[in-house]
Amino acid sequence: MVEIINCTPDFLKTIWCAARTCYSPLTPQELWRSDPTEEEKLRIARHIFHSRHMSVVEHCVVTFAVSGVSRTLLAQYSRHRIGVSLSVQSQRYVSERSGRNGQPIFDAVVPSSIRQDPEALAEYRKQLQNIQDSYDRLCELGIPKEDARFVLPGGAETNFVTTVNLRSLLDLYQKRVAVPGAQWEIRQMVQTMMDLVVNRFPWLEEFLEPPKGTLK
Questions:
Q1: Catalytic positions
Q2: In this predicted structure, what is the pLDDT of residue 215?
Q3: Predicted local distance difference test score (pLDDT) of residue 146
Q4: Mind listing the pLDDT tens digit for each residue in 160-169?
Q5: pTM
Q6: 182 φ, ψ to 5°?
Q7: CB distance 32 to 91 below 8 Å
Q8: Handedness of CA 179, 183, 186, 191 (dihedral sign)
Q9: Which of 10, 30, 146, 195 has a Cα-to-Cα distance from 210 of 20 to 30 A?
């Protein structure tokens, strides 16, 4: 699940103000207090995006709350370091022992390729139970959670908060959605992030490259 929990209130005016500051005799405070038309702000935004002078776009930031994703996704997402801040639920301090939150085994993401195959799903669940049993036994033996977690799989669920500037979000979208090859889970997450942002700022849609093989 992905949700916006904080966001620069007005992306378009922020971009306009930052861009105009570079060439205007007016102060940024004066520019911000002015009232440019939507057409003028979009004209500047189009110039910025088409000329690839993207530094001013970095002033727009959005914070997402992400839950129920896999540690495998986290490993992929954390490679996007520039312009991306990340605070992750810790397996050192959060126990995955059976019975936590009334669950018999720890939460794990199940890929659709496994979910759709009864035999594969049974095998997957069997291994999750084996891992749960091993984790519980290690804890019973006095092994600290930070060491017992080594038996947990990449499919174990995690939660995180991430803050991304718009330039980095566009780069994420380009690499994980527009260009084929990204794994399904991170592709879906980044697509949802972008959908949420475009829903707030519909003017952004014209600057998105459609995924390869689709029509704009």
A1: 176
A2: 46
A3: 93
A4: 999 999 999 9
A5: 0.91
A6: -70, 150
A7: no
A8: positive
A9: 10
Alpha carbons 152 and 141: distance in angstroms, whole number: 17
Task: Tell me the two tokens of residue 140.
Answer: 């019973």
Residue with structure tokens 């306009």?
Answer: 16
User: Rounded distance, CA 66 to CA 3, Å?
Assistant: 7
Write down the pLDDT at residue 153.
Answer: 95
Domains of the chain in sequence order: 2-87+158-207 (3.30.1360.170), 92-155 (no CATH)
Least confident span in 68-82, 98-112, 133-147, 169-183: 98-112
- 172: nearest Cα among 57, 89, 84: 84
Closest CA to 103 of 85, 122, 128, 69: 128
- Reported as a single tens digit per residue, the pLDDT across 97-120 is 887 766 778 999 999 999 999 999
* Amino acid of residue 184: W
pLDDT at 216: 47
User: Which residue in 186, 216, 214, 210 sits closest to 78, CA to CA?
Assistant: 186
Residue 69: phi and psi, rounded to 5, are -105, 165
- Nearest to 47, CA basis, from 83, 7, 18: 18
Name the helix (H) or strand (E) containing 163: strand 157-165
The single-letter code of the amino acid at 89 is Q
Q: How many CB atoms within 10 Å of residue 65?
A: 14
Q: Which two tokens stand for residue 206?
A: 């014209």
Segment 9-32 mean pLDDT: 96
- Asked whether 110 and 155 are in contact (CB, 8 A), the reply is yes
